[in-house]
Amino acid sequence: xxxxxxxxxxxxxxxxxxxxxxxxxxxxxxxxxxxxxxxxxxxxxxxxxxxxxxxxxxxxxxxxxxxxxxxxxxxxxxxxxxxxxxxxxxxxxxxxxxxxxxxxxxxxxxxxxxxxxxxxxxxxxxxxxxxxxxxxxxxxxxxx
Length: 144
Prior knowledge:
By secondary structure, this protein is an all-alpha fold. The chain has helices at residues 5-16, 24-36, 45-52, 61-65, 73-88, 95-107, 112-116, 124-134. The N and C termini lie far apart (83 Å).
């Protein structure tokens, strides 16, 4: 079986940069996950370099996901769970990260239910209506 540690690394780093920022906590979670996949639990110099030099501009999600297209459904779901954990590392979850999760789920041919399990469940129009109702009414126009 082919070692896909570099593809896993790239996918997790892509997840870490999904919100256009790399938080140190996300980088640490990526390193920790990768270390668990290695026999001695230590990142190789090549993997450390790959993490440090990762370029989100050069990252091609569809190309990386092609490495996992033949995996079992359970393994593809687990990959989505790991990506969600990387997103959670900075204790923020935003729409860019949600979009990334949805792209990954689609690229891995996962169902809508699998997507929903890890994504924000908000309707933007509904949120706008809710926020508008919280806004105070303008004050009355003074009589001249």
